[in-house]
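Hey all, quick one. A colleague (J.T.) asked me to put the glycine job into the tracker so the inputs and the structure tokens live in one place instead of scattered across chat threads. No bug as far as I know, just bookkeeping. Sequence used:
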Amino acid sequence: MSQTYRRHREQLMNRLSDGLIVLSGGQEITRNNDVTYVFRQKSNFLYLTGVEEPNCHLLIDPKDRLVTLFIPRTDARYKVWLGYVPSPKEASELFGIDRVLYSDRFKDEVKKAAKKHKKIYTDPDAAKFLNGTLKEPGGTDDLEDALWELRAVKTPGELELLREASRISGRAHRAVMKAARPGMKEYEAQAIFEAECLRAGLKHLAYPSIVAAGKNAAVLHYHRNNAEIKKGDFLLIDAGGELNGYGADITRTFPVGARFNTRQKDVYTVVLEAQKQCIGQALPEKTSLDLHLCAMRVLADGLKSMKILKGKTDDLMENGAVRLFFPHGIGHLLGLDVHDGMGGKRRAMPNPSKIKMRFIAKLEPGFVITVEPGLYFIDVLLNDRKNREKYKSFVDFDRAESFIDIGGVRIEDDIVIGEQGSPLNLTDVPKEIDDIEAACDL
Ligand code: GLY
Ligand code: MN
Ligand code: MN
């Protein structure tokens, strides 16, 4: 793997060849008294080094093509309590970085190297650390943007890690389908997922697991995970493990202890159709807006056929009626962060439509994106007086309300945009109704 990180550093040196680059890794944060939060390295630092230890720094000099990693000097007491820490020589071999020094040399080394450069690029933590050491640390936004730009297109080593994180997470989702039973608490289903990840050696999850039964599935980032799962309830589980920083982001929704009933089937089939069509559109040159519009259109048509929406599909998309039932985006980039930035400022495109979107960019080979349409029956939106007034000729609110007990359905897969155009789906978890019922041991 050290070749992968070397390649990332080379790419960054080529992109910011006109200055010195300085980054600080994450520090441990106290939770209380002698206890720290579980440490997770900062994503940019992982991207450039693969180093998962706290209190490190990185100095990259593109002029001399020289990279220096700084690691903490630990004393005997540290070793007694927290164990063995590699020496600079060992760290150099381990991480494939030629020059490794102790962190107490960091400021002096930066000062020395800075003399050869007019421009310095520092990340915010390094800037704080170097406060007073350099005249103008600066360059923070440019460094951040360059890293977002590079991180959007995954290198082969990164794809390997994403594929493995997906494989393990997929197995964990299948374990939940097999074992979930009525009467369990949501956290028991969560425990099954997370145990599978831990058993496979994953130290972290990519994000807090969302395990939502029945109505709770209408809370988009539900985290309480403590309600009882009733027989026949939909269980929405949005969870993914993380391997060396690279995550999976997978959602499945299935009924527990029963087959899909007719209403569940109706809603589920619409979301699945939207997801399949969007994955089919996940091609280079298509934009994130294209995918979002594709999802909105299928969902709007589906809600019309369920007699929940009425009117012209284009109007329903533009006037916000569809948003009442699909109030989030179709997906996002995935990588070292579960929401892996936007791909850098250079990729930003104007929005030609009336649909609000945070960021629009063309898809490129090597992007890894999530495709995650959903339909939700959200009490606070459906029973809001203003919404009822505004959308009275487009939404049958009484009918929509009768679906509130279903909660919601989201189906989320992780997709690599392919060179040849054909998207590669990293997610291997049943999503067809028959396959889910079989996986649930019904
Ligand atoms: N798991 C959060 C998301 O799907 O964006
Ligand atoms: Mn997602
Ligand atoms: Mn998700």
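Adding what we noticed when we looked at it: DSSP finds 16 helices and 18 strands in the chain. Residues 172 and 194 are 7 Å apart (CA to CA).
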